[in-house]
Amino acid sequence: MRRRNWRLEMPLHLMLVPGIIVVLLFSYGPMVGVVIAFENFIPVKGMFRSEWVGLEHFKYIYHLSETREVLRNTVFIALMKMIGGLVAPLVTALLLNEVMKKYYKRAIQTIIYMPHFMSWVIMAGILLDVLSPTSGIVNQFIAWLGFDKVFFLGNDKWFPYVLVVTDVLKEFGFGTVVYLAAITAVNPSLYEAAVLDGANRWKQTLHVTIPAIIPITILLTTLALGNVLNAGFDQVFNLYNPSVYSTGDILDTYVYRIGLASAQYGVATAVGLFKSAISLVLISLSYFLAYRFANYRIF
Asked: How far apart are CA 27 and CA 255, in angstroms?
């Protein structure tokens, strides 16, 4: 029986081979490079012949004022994105659930879902025009209201909030689809019982819909904890400039600037390794909380 099952399952195991090879080459293979964090890395000498400096790079970044600033920016921007990315799709899904006209509902879903497939290179080009302090439609509207124009992408006070709002606008359509799928799985008999008890649409949403989707909400919230240190390199890199480094520079862009632009490979690798260690702890914690509160497990 075991041999028979093995023959039947062999094609499925073989299908995993290409994926395993890709993961080994591009995920586990590059992990050898973490040794650079403990070396005075010189490209000509390579990883295994460069001078070993131990924890000197970690001590260096610990005493840098920029490191604390970048870490603070990363956590703030990531948390704001996480909150906005959970609240906006939930509210939108609840509102769309009340739309009775199917064609209108599907049209809205398609429109809000489309930005999810656009790269940040394209989105950045659009935002540069829309938020332009001279010809942008947003500043023209602000001027029409009688207020002073705002340089959103050049003002360090406004820039973090621009990152959060634009990220939510780009991605909330995807989250809305997830919540709508959870809402469609609600037992219709619960709504029928609520109607018999005299509940209106608001009461049905409050006492039937929202409690039914709380598990998926808890799951998405806990899984999002693992991305607290991922504030979005693509977005920030395409939108930021030196005038907003104080509030817009995050760990990923900081590693890029000191690693590739300044050729401090050891320091950049040390920062990246520090981020990876913290992310591992947060991801482990998020999966524990997901299992504890939403009964979600990978294995």
From this structure: 18
**What token pair was written down for 30?**
């590059």
pLDDT in tens, 276-295: 888 888 878 877 877 777 67
Q: What's the predicted TM-score (pTM) here? A: 0.81
What is the CA 157 to chain-centroid distance, rounded? 22
Give one DSSP letter per residue of the chain, joined into a string. Answer: -HHHHHHHHHHHHHHHHHHHHHHIIIIIGGGGGGGGGGEE--TTT-TTTSEE-TTHHHHHHHT-HHHHHHHHHHHHHHHHHHHHHHHHHHHHHHHHHT---HHHHHHHHHHHHGGGGS-HHHHHHHHHHHT-TTT-HHHHHHHHTTPPP--TTT-TTTHHHHHHHHHHHHHHHHHHHHHHHHHHTS-HHHHHHHHHTT--HHHHIIIIIHHHHHHHHHHHHHHHGGGTT---HHHHHHH--GGGHHHH--HHHHHHIIIIIS--HHHHHHHHHHHHHHHHHHHHHHHHHHHHHH-----
